[in-house]
Write a structure and sequence with these properties.
Chain lengths: 514, 384
């Protein structure tokens, strides 16, 4: 494995570990805010007990979320230092705002949440709980604005003097449709995960015939919460598909394992894809089996069942009929843009002002920018086939995400129905199915990130910067060692977290009583 | 309103904000100082718990300050962020690693079934205290002494030592190493002084008070020694000056001392900061009963003043704040490393929130610390 592979592995490791804990924080803080609001409103102690119990579990989760999060922020610098310079002018801002707006809010008020029960008024405490929830979700907003920009870079221009992208419009970056939708899809799905966690543990209590009051009340609140956000996750997911179709057609093709594009493109409901085809032209027999829904992919991507959805082959080799430029041509244009930059630097160094100004004018010429500079990133590739993501991984993680999400939605609906009928405890197998919802929730959310990030490869910033050029100038061994360090410590801490969590669940809200 | 400022003013403004964040971070390192003193100041389990709980309510603020410092530097001076973090890889990785193991330790140390055992988590806290203080202090000193790196015409940076930053603390053939380490050790001892003062401010326990009282002196003496060593060296040292007309970097004798004289307000505030630290140490030690609770605030504000103004001396007045010792012209200054004017303006609007953040942090701090921690409270709801 090369330096860039190890750097990616390390980032993926920290991101995937971090994401084991964050969605629970995003969701459960709102759940706590709701149950504590009920407590303050009704004055009933049982709601305080419910809040405090879930708060204990939240605290255990929060600590490790923070631990894994700090690495991510600094890893942009330590492992992706060329990236940090090339786009730091745009990418750094949301990270800084995240810190100033969100992290302090979260970390200051979380202390009140945990330590303030007997020190501040009920109202102040409740406000703090809400502010912790809002703070953690605000931090998600800013980091997803940053990530949205990597998927669909907007609001910037290239400065040949500093050799980097610079921000031209802050509002374009913030209201990047890709970012807003990504934010909503991510937090909504996180609320589902938190709901699955709560109903899962409550189901276990019911199976054990203990903590019935806490469990049942928690199930009602969490199932409503989960069901609402399941619907909203589908809505935002659907919107995501259209944005991906528009800005990252290769990702969409990989998600569906679509090698050859067509109109009336079908959506694969279930399928088993064969190993990655190195050359898209050899990929005719691409599936062991598949069940398709006719025309649905065309409809999802373009709200039009007749629409043409390009496949991997169309994107790599071009499709004249559909006006798709082949990668080879993009690479050619990109190389022209890169040469212009090199010539400009040389002219400046040699004091050739006339030539430098002529070239500089090019970098301000809209037509030239659209025709050539927009393909700058393609100049780093030598073979068009390098510009295809890993298809099987993208395909499977996308389908797993959808299936696991669907399963959870069903669980919430069934739970609410049974609660309404008041015979939840009769169906032991359903309670087991609810417990199974917990791993399903994590599977769905982690898969979602794998689709988003693996599907974007080999770009770190779509079409602008290949991942291989973003990496720090460092020896591979150093990254291998830090990878091993993080792997060992994160795994040890994860084991600790799970053991502590299980123990606290066993102890329960009544400290072992009933 | 920020649009009216010129580029250079914005660059200075943002450098000052980062310096302020770094200064607050060093003050908040009393948490790390305290982590090293759990077993020194607390002899019984209850005493140790009181100590852990007193700093355990603040560790997240220190942590957030570090994260915000990183984010703000990234947004305002991305070339520094790219060069230092990507270059001094091992220094930053070790620092970050120590913060990973810190973050879980408070929450997990006294929970049943915690896999690694209480002692391990307390050791994690100790390691974080030791590394965060000395390494960060050493790293700040390199703002004056320089690091081995160069930057190419595309602004890609390359570190010129395979030790990846560790050479700055371990290469004893280089006199700069001693300057770097002296600041690292000064911060190390200062954090312990501040921690003791914080215990006096927030814990109600006679035994802890007695030990913290003594410990202040034992840590203050080496702090003063190391800080003086650092400070005297800075005064007499050649500095990395920039020619404002050409942008060329050159070595200027006693540059940092000139900066102090040419920026008298900065120099005055620096000296006031030093006096505040020394005075509070003296007052707490000799007039214990009257002054024990106030010490942390006086010394804390003093710390913020000292670090803030030291960093201004390193970066203002046409000085390269992150100098290169292997390629002088690659040295990083606020002029060649900052974000674009547009981004700095946008970020400046965001910076208006900083006073608001400080205000609510202060308010919450007061409400949580309005009653000192005592043995009774330790058995309460959410203790570490």
């Amino acid at each position: 494995m090369s330096l860039v592979d190890w750097s990616r592995a390390q980032f993926a490791l920290t991101a995937l570990y971090h994401w084991l804990f964050v969605p629970l924080t995003l969701g459960i803080t709102f759940f706590l805010a709701i149950t504590e609001s009920i407590y303050v409103k009704t004055g009933k102690e049982e709601w305080k007990k419910i809040t405090k119990f879930w708060m204990t579990l939240f605290g255990i989760n929060f600590a490790i979320g923070v631990a894994t999060g700090i690495i991510l922020e600094f890893e942009f610098g330590t492992n992706w230092s060329n990236y940090s310079w090339f786009v730091g002018d745009i990418f750094g801002a949301p990270l800084a705002i995240e810190g100033i707006m969100a992290f302090f809010m979260e970390s200051v008020f979380i202390a009140v949440m945990f330590f303030g029960w007997d020190k501040v008024s009920k109202r102040f405490h409740l406000t703090s709980t809400w502010l912790t929830a809002i703070g953690s979700n605000l931090s998600a907003l800013w980091i997803l604005v940053a990530n949205g920009w990597m998927q669909n870079p907007v609001g910037m221009h290239f400065n040949p003097d500093t050799a980097r992208m610079e921000m031209a419009d802050f509002w374009d970056v913030l209201f990047n449709p890709n970012a807003i939708n990504k934010f909503l899809h991510t937090i909504y799905s996180s609320y589902i995960l938190a709901a699955a966690f709560i109903v899962g543990i409550s189901a276990w209590y019911l199976l054990r015939n203990r903590e019935k009051i806490v469990a049942k009340k928690s199930i009602v609140v969490a199932s409503i919460f989960g069901l609402i956000f399941s619907v909203l996750t589908i809505v935002t997911g659907d919107e995501s598909a259209r944005q991906v179709a528009k800005t990252q057609p290769m990702k969409l093709a990989a998600m569906e394992g679509l090698y050859y594009g067509s109109d009336h493109a079908p959506l694969i409901a279930i399928g088993a894809i064969k190993g990655e085809a190195k050359d898209s032209s050899q990929a005719k027999q691409d599936f062991y089996f598949k069940f398709e829904v006719p025309s649905l992919l065309s409809y999802m991507a373009f709200l039009d069942a007749d629409a043409f959805v390009p496949g991997i082959h169309d994107l790599v080799h071009g499709n004249k009929e559909q006006g798709i430029m082949p990668y080879k041509e993009k690479m050619r244009r990109g190389k022209i843009a890169r040469k212009a930059l090199k010539d400009y630097k040389e002219a400046k160094d040699n004091g050739n002002t006339e030539k430098a100004e002529e070239l500089l004018a090019q970098f301000n010429d809209k037509k030239w920018l659209t025709e050539y500079f927009n393909y700058f990133g393609y100049s780093y590739f030598n073979d068009p086939h390098q510009i295809i993501p890993n298809v099987p991984i993208t395909f499977y993680s996308f389908h797993l995400m959808v299936m696991a999400g669907g399963y959870l939605m069903m669980i919430f609906a069934v739970l609410l129905f049974l609660v309404y009928k008041n015979n939840l405890e009769k169906y032991k197998w359903i309670l087991w199915a609810v417990i199974l919802g917990m791993p399903a929730a994590w599977l769905a959310t982690e898969s979602g990130w794998i689709v988003a990030e693996m599907g974007r490869q080999p770009w770190v910033i779509q079409d602008l910067m290949p991942t291989m050029t973003a990496v720090s100038n460092i020896n591979t061994t150093s990254v291998q060692i830090t990878f091993a360090m993080f792997f060992i410590v994160f795994t040890a801490l994860l084991i600790a977290e799970i053991k502590i969590m299980l123990k606290q669940i066993k102890i329960g809200p009544n400290k072992g009583g009933n | 309103m920020f649009e009216l400022l010129d580029y250079s003013t914005l660059q200075h403004y943002w450098y000052a904000i980062n310096a302020l964040l770094a200064a607050i971070l060093v003050f908040m390192m009393f948490v790390q100082g305290g982590q090293m003193l759990i077993y020194k100041i607390g002899k019984t389990e209850t005493e140790q718990s009181m100590i852990v709980n007193s700093i355990g309510r603040k560790w997240e603020i220190t942590f957030s300050t570090l994260v915000v410092f990183g984010g703000a530097f990234f947004a305002s001076f991305p070339l520094f962020y790219a060069t230092s973090f990507g270059g001094a890889y091992w220094v930053w990785m070790i620092i970050l690693f120590s913060f990973i193991i810190q973050a879980v330790s408070y929450e997990y140390r006294s929970k049943p079934n915690n896999f690694l055992g209480k002692k391990t988590y307390d050791t994690f806290l100790f390691i974080n205290g030791l590394i965060a203080t000395t390494f960060l202090g050493t790293a700040v000193a390199t703002f004056f002494t320089g690091s081995p790196f160069h930057i190419n015409e595309m602004n890609n940076s390359f570190w010129d030592s395979s030790f990846r930053g560790l050479e700055l603390a371990l290469d004893f053939t280089n006199y700069n190493t001693f300057i770097n380490l002296s600041l690292g050790l000064a911060i190390f001892f200062l954090s312990r002084v501040l921690a003791n003062m914080y215990f006096l401010n927030s814990i109600d326990d006679k035994n802890i008070e007695k030990r913290a009282h003594k410990s202040i002196l034992y840590n203050a003496i080496p702090f003063v020694v190391f800080f003086l060593f650092f400070f005297i060296n800075i005064i007499f040292k050649d500095g990395f000056a920039i020619n404002p007309d050409t942008g060329e970097v050159y070595m200027e004798p006693m540059k940092y001392f000139s900066n102090m004289l040419e920026m008298p307000l900065v120099f005055a505030l620096l000296l006031i900061g030093v006096v505040m630290i020394l005075m509070s140490i003296g007052r707490v030690y000799f007039k214990f009963d009257q002054c024990k609770e106030r010490g942390i605030w006086i010394a804390g504000i003093g710390t913020i003043l000292v670090v803030f103004n030291l960093l201004l001396i390193a970066g203002f007045n046409n000085t390269a704040y992150y100098p290169s010792t292997t390629d002088l012209q690659s040295s990083i200054s606020i002029f060649n490393s900052s974000s674009s004017e547009y981004t700095l303006v946008a970020m400046s609007y965001v910076s208006l929130m900083v006073p608001f953040v400080i205000a609510y942090t202060w308010y919450v701090w007061k409400s949580i610390n309005n009653k000192k921690i005592d043995a009774d409270e330790i058995n309460n709801s959410h203790g570490y």
